[in-house]
Design a protein that fits this description.
The chain has about 130 residues and is an all-alpha fold. It is built from five helices and no strands. It has one domain. The chain is elongated, with a radius of gyration of 20 Å.
Amino acid sequence: MQIGPSSDAARGLRGLSFGMAPGSPHGRSWFGDTVLLAFLGAQFFDGALTYIGVHHYGLGIEANPIVGWYIAVLGIGYALFATKALAVACAALLHLFARHRVIGVLTILYLMAAIGPWVHLLAAIE
């Protein structure tokens, strides 16, 4: 049994990729960068609209029970910062492993399920 940098165990750890290939073999992906920027924009607007909505309508308006709990425990600023930071970190990890279509689907999901309802609800404020 060989121990050291050339052993099978060491080679296995270096090649550990969880089934994901890091980066694009052809360099930067304009699609990936664009999708990541769109996701970051969706996160920003979701956070801003959530902040406005909770301030105007109260904590009960937040549809996500986990975010609602964070708001109740941490306050709206810290809660939104923590949840959006987690979402951005996860998206950065997906971007690092070139899972750009997943980020694109999540962006569309945020636009339809989070930002759309907030815009519709907040447009009714007089």
